[in-house]
User: Which sequence fits this backbone?
């Protein structure tokens, strides 16, 4: 370059004198990465990664690229320099660990590959590639002055570099997670620094801090200070126990074991905000298994914490957007700020799903990984913890252990049916209970007697349901629920499933609640969509045999307010033409539940019964069943030979891709669909359309498309043709997917 100034970026139609100097970009990124890595205790390493991530831009070829020349590999240079600088030194491990984030800051964290790789996407292959001369960096940077830590900042590895014997087999996973944290801080810093130059600084932050939210919560709780009923006094007792534990307990692992209807949602948030305020933690991440209730829970939190402080982030409404989904860029908009928060979860309260949360922990792409560093020093609540992904339990719990032990987080496993997750943590770890005497709570909340009826045909089941004025029946598949609904007689019959858009379900639930209160006829047949977060109170319930956790959840919708003494919950084994196949796991959970119902017939909804159920279920599994894709094998190398890209491809909680279809359910939905066609800011419109969406499997979507009933806006947003609503959207059953021989899966 002959001593010419090197540049990092240019804006369109900008004079050369106004281009961004490369050294400015490197120094700014390094400072931001240092700041972002502080809570994760990787500030030093993130700073180094930021300072050298773009060394390749010092090449003459890259400078020509800024003037319209061909693409140039600029991400490998920094990794090469680190290897040259540290080989043979005690800190040599850092050359290996930092190579991944530096080389992957655009393309994603790569696999290590093999020393025989001569080219390609792997770390080894790229290190051997010939790249343009970038030595001009030496005129502005002296890498010999870089200061590297003398110790690895992770436990149990807070030891001198390269201990004689790695303390455990888990060392590789800890090192890989450390690498992810550095990567997260680097790519978030790089995104934000580049965005500031290219578009100007965007208004980030401006949220209430944790102490302010703590005060808002306490103000909200004043309305519960003088409960008048026994059940509300007990809920208050649980709430205050959680608040006191939040103040007194140091960060770590916690469980909240409270029967359904005991007020877990509010109690867990109360613990989290008091715990965070007491210990200087930065945010609360509330993780929910079902997209069907995330909006409801987020709405509760927004009600007393403020909409601007709560981010709702899940797959049905991905704030990062589909292709072409530009965000509303009005700088003073709450929506615009929430969209920015969705990029990196830099907001006090995040409500998300198991899928979003755990796939983030194992992703390798920069756009998803930039959230990870903001999980350090957070309180992570897993609502309905029994629904954590069984097939990925070992890597999932390994990652949670890392967040708590090495990155200052606390975690709460919150459920009425604790699945004994501590057995999956890498080391023997104490999980402290927040609830006061869980078994006493179960005794207090005993409101349902569970009776096992054995096998029932649909005819027998329908005869029973039709004989009740009010009853709830939950089955395992959409097809079975729809078929049974067709056999209900008289007035006041309802069907619920995820094929109904949220606005439709809410309308039905409001009607159901009103009929229950007025003691009018009300019979409901539902899929498992009714098993969590639904505040309804039936006098009697029926549940198709499944896991004891699901039976317990179903029982939580029967005699919920304890107004009837003890009600009955009948468990039956269905014999139905609507059930073509049953998954092997459902068969297995049903078999274990059958044994536990027999052995604990006197108290099937109790701590001992739940412990017996999960103990037997886990013991039946091959150990590999909890890491079916062998994710842990990708990180079992203590010398840093990891497979980030392989793990990211394999870690897919929902194996079958889904497609979101917008339903023209009412005039408001139709108006918003029209707005979506023409708006320059689809982000705001999409948010308003969320209550009118249904997610279906890709194969189901293809069958619908083949009927010519799907309209696509901007090649991105799929809408059920309003002219086809009567034929393909039933006001009792929801979206009518063409027959596929299905009905054989647990569909939430």
Assistant:
């Amino acid at each position: 370059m002959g001593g010419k100034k090197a540049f990092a970026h240019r804006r369109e139609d900008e004079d050369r004198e106004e281009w961004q100097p490369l050294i400015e970009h490197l120094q700014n990124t390094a400072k931001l990465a240092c700041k972002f890595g502080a809570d994760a205790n990787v500030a030093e390493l993130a700073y180094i990664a930021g300072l050298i991530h773009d060394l390749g831009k010092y090449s003459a070829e890259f400078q020509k690229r800024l003037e319209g020349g061909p693409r140039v590999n600029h991400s490998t240079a920094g990794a090469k320099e680190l290897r040259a600088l540290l080989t043979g030194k005690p800190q040599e491990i850092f050359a290996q660990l930092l190579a991944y984030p530096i080389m992957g800051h655009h393309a994603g964290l790569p696999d290590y590959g093999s020393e025989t790789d001569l080219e390609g996407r792997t770390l080894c292959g790229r290190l051997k590639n010939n790249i343009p001369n970038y030595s001009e960096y030496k005129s502005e940077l002296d890498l010999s002055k870089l200061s590297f830590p003398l110790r690895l900042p992770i436990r149990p590895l807070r030891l001198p570099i390269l201990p004689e014997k790695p303390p455990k087999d888990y060392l590789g996973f800890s090192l890989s997670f450390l690498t992810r944290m550095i990567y997260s801080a680097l790519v978030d810093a790089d995104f934000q620094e580049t965005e500031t130059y290219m578009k100007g600084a965007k208004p980030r932050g401006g949220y209430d801090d944790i102490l302010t939210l703590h005060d808002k919560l306490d103000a909200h709780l004043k309305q519960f200070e003088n409960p008048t009923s026994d059940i509300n006094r007990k809920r208050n007792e649980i709430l205050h126990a959680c608040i006191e534990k939040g103040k007194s307990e140091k960060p770590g692992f916690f469980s909240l074991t409270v029967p359904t209807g005991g007020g877990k949602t509010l109690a867990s948030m109360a613990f989290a905000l008091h715990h965070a305020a007491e210990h200087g933690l930065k945010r609360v991440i509330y993780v929910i298994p079902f997209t069907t209730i995330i909006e409801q829970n987020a709405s509760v939190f927004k009600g007393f914490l403020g909409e601007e402080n709560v981010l709702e982030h899940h797959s049905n409404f991905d704030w990062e957007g589909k292709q072409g989904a530009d965000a509303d860029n009005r700088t003073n908009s709450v929506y615009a700020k929430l969209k920015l928060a969705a990029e990196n979860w830099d907001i006090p309260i995040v409500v998300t799903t198991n899928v979003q949360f755990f796939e983030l922990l194992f992703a390798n792409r920069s756009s998803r990984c930039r959230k990870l560093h903001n999980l350090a020093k957070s309180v992570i609540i897993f609502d309905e913890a029994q629904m954590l992904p069984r097939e990925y339990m070992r890597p999932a719990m390994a990652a949670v252990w890392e967040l708590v032990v090495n990155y200052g987080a606390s975690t709460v496993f919150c459920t009425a049916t604790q699945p004994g997750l501590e057995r999956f943590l890498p080391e023997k770890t104490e999980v402290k209970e927040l609830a006061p005497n869980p078994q006493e709570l179960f005794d207090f909340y005993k409101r349902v007697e569970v009776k096992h009826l054995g096998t029932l045909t649909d005819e027998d089941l329908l005869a029973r349901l039709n004989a009740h004025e009010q009853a709830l029946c939950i089955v395992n598949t959409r097809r079975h629920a729809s078929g049974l609904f067709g056999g209900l007689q008289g007035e006041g019959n309802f069907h619920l499933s995820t094929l109904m858009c949220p606005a439709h379900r809410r309308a039905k639930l409001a009607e159901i609640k009103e009929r229950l209160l007025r003691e009018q006829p009300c019979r409901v047949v539902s899929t498992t969509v009714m098993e969590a977060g639904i505040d309804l109170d039936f006098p009697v319930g029926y549940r198709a045999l499944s896991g004891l956790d699901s039976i317990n959840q179903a029982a939580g919708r029967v005699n919920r307010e304890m107004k009837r003494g003890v009600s009955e919950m009948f468990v039956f084994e269905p014999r139905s033409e609507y059930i073509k196949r049953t998954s092997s796991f459902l068969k297995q959970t049903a078999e274990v539940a059958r044994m536990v119902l027999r052995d604990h017939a006197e108290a099937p909804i109790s701590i001992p019964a739940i412990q017996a159920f999960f103990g037997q279920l886990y013991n039946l599994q091959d150990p590999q069943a909890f890491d079916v894709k062998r994710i842990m094998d990708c990180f079992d190398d203590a010398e840093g030979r990891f497979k980030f890209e392989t793990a990211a491809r394999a870690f897919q909680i929902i194996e079958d891709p889904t497609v979101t279809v917008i339903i023209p359910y009412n005039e408001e939905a139709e108006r918003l669909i029209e707005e979506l066609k023409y708006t320059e800011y689809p982000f705001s419109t999409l948010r308003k359309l969320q209550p009118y969406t249904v997610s279906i499997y890709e194969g189901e979507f293809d069958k619908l498309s083949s009927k010519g009933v799907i309209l696509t806006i901007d090649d991105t947003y799929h809408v059920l043709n309003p002219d086809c609503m009567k034929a393909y959207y039933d006001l009792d059953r929801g979206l009518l997917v063409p027959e596929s021989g299905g009905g054989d899966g647990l569909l939430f």
